[in-house]
Amino acid sequence: MNSKDITPYNKKGERHGYWEWYYDNGNLWYKGNYVDGREHGYCESYYSNGQLHFKGNYVNGKQHGYWEYYYYDGELKEKTYYI
Known about the structure:
flat; seven-stranded antiparallel β-sheet; 7 strands; about 80 residues; about 0% helix; mainly beta; Histone H3 K4-specific methyltransferase SET7/9 N-terminal domain
């Protein structure tokens, strides 16, 4: 997997801002936000076939609120709530 030219860092060299990664086939693998090296905010991850794998929110690097997980074929697998 690789990251396209959306790779912002803060002054400490930590991920900071919006990031995307892609599979070698060009499909989006992951998109989300970072604040000072920690995931923070909404994110989505996809299977290599383009189907959604999961989506949810992070707060200071920890999963928070409702998350949804999907099977490879796109069918909803489960919903989970994180505190």
